[in-house]
Amino acid sequence: MQVQGETSHLRVERLSLPACLALAANGAAPFAALGYGTPHELAWMPTVNARVLSAQGAMADVWHVAGANVESGTTGIARWRTDGHWLLGAIDIDESAEEHNLAEIAHRAYRDLFKTLDQAATPHLLRIWNYLPQINADGGGLERYRQFNLGRQEAFFEAGRAAFEGAPAACALGIHQGALSIRFLAGRKAPLPVENPRQVSAYRYPETYGPRSPTFSRAALADIGNGEVALFISGTASIVGHETVHHGDVLEQTRETLRNLEAVIAAANGQVTHVSGAFSLATLDCVVYVRHPADTDKVRGVIESALGVGAPLIRHAVYLEADICRSDLLVEIEAHAVAPGRLRA
Ligand code: 3EB
Prior knowledge:
Helix content: 10-25%
CATH class: Alpha Beta
Order of helices and strands: EHEEEEEEHEHEEEEEEEHEEHHEEE
Mean pLDDT: 95
Strand order of the largest sheet: 5-6-7-10-8-9-19
Shape: globular
CATH architecture: 2-Layer Sandwich
Number of domains: 1
Distance between the termini: 27 Å
Number of helices: 6
Number of strands: 20
Radius of gyration: 19 Å
Bound molecules: 3-(2-carboxyethyl)benzoic acid
Strand content: 25-35%
């Protein structure tokens, strides 16, 4: 029985596609899932249209809620599933059918995203995943990623949402083809944003990176019920301060990315009273985005020698071919983890 005011338990597990399908066939239809290279026709599992570079093939993060009262619907162009405590939404836009530029498309997408949250019992964004076709291509005098940043920030302002401190954790990757895809997870309570002391906050990047800043925090912590805290780590790359470091060197970029992950995990641990172990790099469920598929073995080699091949991260990691939002970045890693504990007030 759900007690009013108590947090309903949200769970997540990373499964292979066959395991996901078996779960659904058993009638234990999960709340929702985010697929990586999974088929497009599963309504409860919006997918990322990117090539899977890891041997296990298509995988998904399957989210489970405690109760059985899952409702689904659409708000404008946003599709969503909610149990009244948690909401997972998806937006897919076929740009070939659009007359507007990416700034306007992003603005409209985020307007519908916020409308969804305003109408649901789950107003607070925990995490956003953005996948943009041809992210580094020119979009009419401005790189498409920079156009996206324009429209996204404008929508945050318009909706009265925190576009600086308190922005949600996010990632923004480039896909070669398919729809512009946005996925979002929301809940009833505002998460705790976390920044990385080694990096300038992305929402404070100087104008050299585009007329409007990206809108995301480096990580976010959320109470997910049952005495557990979730850590959502945004896309993390070889950036120190606000500058890309190790141009053209995928090995060093991967090492720098791991240092940034360690720093953001340490910052997050400082905000949590842990019951058993603290968050650690070795136990994250991560997605590794590699710009050039030929670099995959090099990236994997760095991660394996840093963590040891037995680390859970190694077994669970999904590698995807994707462009990174800066054309000089060759690799990016995003992650989540769950640990028993509570957020410090
Ligand atoms: C960076 O640190 C790398 O625009 O939502 C990482 C995570 C990046 C999220 C976004 C961009 C975004 O700036 C790029």
